[in-house]
Amino acid sequence: MPGPTPRHRPVDSASRGLKSAFDAVRFAPDRILNLRASFPTGADAAYRAESWLRERQAAGAREVLIITGRGQGSPDGIAVVRDAVARCFPALRRTGVIAAVHEHDPGSFVVELATLQALVSAPRRRQHPRPEPSCDAGVLAGLDPGILELLRRLALVALEALGVHGPSDSFVTDEMARHFSRLVLAVPAGGDPATTLRPLLERALDEYDA
């Protein structure tokens, strides 16, 4: 005679609440991105996650939490948002934005952000889902002289760290443009690059000196 049908245990709301409380202590509000609450499309979720991670890296955050949800409310139970966000992690790791990703639970990720030094020294990639902006030296035209000087110093120390000594002026200018093109992606939408870039450049130089 078959035994009784096993029953699924109800979700322990107390345990879930305790976990949320621990997360609130571990992560400040500005280090949590809750994508589950706004029901974005997969493409929108990936774009928002990438932009937010770049901003958090620029702000000096080291560890952040991205909540995607498990997809239980999606058609066929497919975790569209979670999968879309997960697919953007490898490219962000290769380009020096993130250092590591850990599954926090089936509906969230803990992301360790890379240093600015890792960002500016990441190798160029020919294949990338989101192409880098133009590295033409013309992007430097009109920049504040103080910003240009910091970019030049960063280019020189980054090249020296790679074993390049006595580079030509044109080589240094190309590196300045490349670093600028990467760092400017961290500027929040509507933000002023002039006021945002200076602390970014100074922090990147400090990381090379450390």
What is the mean pLDDT?
82
Number of domains: 2
Main sheet specs: 4 strands, mixed
Helix/strand order, N-terminal first:
HEHEHEEHHHH
Lateral strand order in the biggest sheet: 1-2-4-3
User: How large is the count of helical segments?
Assistant: 7
| CATH class term of the largest domain | Alpha Beta
Strand content: 5-15%
Structural class, from secondary structure content?
Answer: alpha+beta
- Residues in helices, as a percent range: 40-55%
Q: What ranges have pLDDT less than 50 throughout 5 or more consecutive residues?
A: 125-134
| CATH topology title of the largest domain | Ribosomal Protein S8, Chain: A, domain 1
Q: What does this protein structure show overall?
A:
- The chain is α+β, with helices and mostly antiparallel strands.
- The longest helix is centred in the first third of the chain and has 17 residues, at 42-58.
- It has helices at residues 13-26, 42-58, 80-94, 116-121, 145-161, 169-183, 193-209, and strands at 32-34, 63-67, 98-105, 108-113.
- β1, α2 and β2 form a beta-alpha-beta unit.
- The protein folds into two domains: 17-114, Ribosomal Protein S8, Chain: A, domain 1, CATH 3.30.1370.110; 123-209, no CATH class.
- It has a four-stranded mixed beta sheet with strand order 1-2-4-3, with helices on one face.
- Helices cover 48% and strands 10% of the residues.
Topology:
Elements: H1 13-26, E1 32-34, H2 42-58, E2 63-67, H3 80-94, E3 98-105, E4 108-113, H4 116-121, H5 145-161, H6 169-183, H7 193-209
Parallel strand pairs: 1-2
Antiparallel strand pairs: 2-4, 3-4
Helix pairs in contact: 2-3, 5-6, 5-7
